[in-house]
Amino acid sequence: MGFFITFEGIEGSGKTTQIRKAAQYLGRHHIPYITTLEPGGTALGVELRTILLGRTSLHIGERAELFLFAADRMQHVEEVILPAMEAGKVVLCDRFGDATIAYQGYGRGLDIGFVTRVNEYASHGITPDMTVLFDAPVETGLGRVKGRNTAVAGQSHDDRFEREAEAFHERIRQGYLELARAEPGRFRVIDATDAVDEIHHRVTSYMMKLIKG
User: On the chain, which terminus has fewer CB atoms closer than 10 Å, C or N?
Assistant: First the structure.
């Protein structure tokens, strides 16, 4: 059985960059792996990602949003994550169940217990072997997002969540930290304001300790 490692954090925390670098590291060391993401890790997920993150006038209620993410996760686990783990691969996943608790639970204010139960059902009871949480001040993360989104065409291309108020993102950040405090054995919290290469070194150190047992 392979290993399941998730990367979490607020918008602009740098997790996507670190997943890419972690994957390159595994490749250089000839360790079989896949990288995937939520939402969007399957064909169905790509369609759901467009609905959930796209610039749209479509109204999505808080509970509907929760169940759309759950549908994405259920398909993702069945179609991608479980088969890869059964094949002995390391699965590097950009967001998973903790994101739903942080965003829809703490961020949107839905009942945490209910969100957790939905999560457990949608994930087939799978829990990551390790979750790396990239923590940064909200203003830092959103500043990075704004710079990234305007770099291409000189205008903002932020998604539904990136356009939310800072207070929303602060609730998410505090939610993530609360989850990490509740499960210190699973979470590895990294200061996302450190240098990219220093963060990468810490990620690979944690990752290889897990893989080597």
Answer: C
